[in-house]
Amino acid sequence: MKKTKKMMTGALAAAALVTLSACGDERGYAEPTGTDCDDWDWDSETGTYYCDDSNSTHAGGYYHGGKYYNSKNSLLKSADYKSYVSNYKSGIGSGSKGGFGG
User: Fold this and answer.
1) Inter-residue contact 61 to 50 (CB < 8 Å)
2) Any idea what DSSP says for residue 58?
3) Angle at CA 77, nearest 5°, toward 73 and 81?
4) Of 34, 69, 21, 78, the residue nearest 49 (C-alpha)
5) What is the dihedral sign for C-alpha 83, 66, 57, 48?
6) With contact defined as beta carbons under 8 Å apart, do 64 and 48 qualify?
7) Rounded CA gap, 94 and 62, in Å?
8) What is the rounded CA–CA span in Å between residue 102 and residue 29?
9) Which long-range contacts (C-beta less than 8 Å, at least 24 apart) are formed by 55-62?
10) DSSP characters for 9-49?
11) How far is the C-alpha of 101 from the C-alpha of 65, rounded, in Å?
12) How far apart are CA 56 and CA 33, in angstroms?
């Protein structure tokens, strides 16, 4: 019985870890850290993070690919973002065909 209990505890811990890591994978990358912005929100329209902290130097700015953009307009004009968005919009759940069984 003790072996079964240990095995079940290990399995539940592993399942919890997988579940937690899957949350970050949904967005493709983690929100920025080490900035003065205390409120990074996921912007599903752009597929990037948005700083919603009016006291931050990044207030109203966006974060993508390790770079900060001071406005949505500057993000949308970025070559890196244009490349990313073509992949983001055609990914899972976009209704596009392709991939496995597509």
Assistant:
1) yes
2) T
3) 105
4) 69
5) positive
6) yes
7) 22
8) 25
9) 61/37
10) HHHHHHHHHHHHHHHHHHHSSPPP-SSS-S-EEEETTTTEE
11) 30
12) 13
- In tens, the pLDDT along 25-55 reads 456 678 888 889 999 999 988 889 999 999 9
41/34 Cα distance (integer angstroms): 15
Cα 29 to chain centroid, rounded: 4
**Residue written as token pair 């003790």:** 2
Sign of the alpha-carbon dihedral angle for 28, 31, 32, 37: positive
Query: Which two three-digit tokens encode residue 21?
Result: 């890591």
What would the two tokens of residue 82 be?
A: 């244009």
Q: Considering the entire predicted model, what is its pTM?
A: 0.59
Burial of 64 (0-12, 13-18, 19+ CB in 10 A): buried
Render pLDDT for 8-21 as a digit per residue (tens, 0 to 9): 444 444 443 333 33
CA separation for the pair 25, 2 (Å, rounded): 35
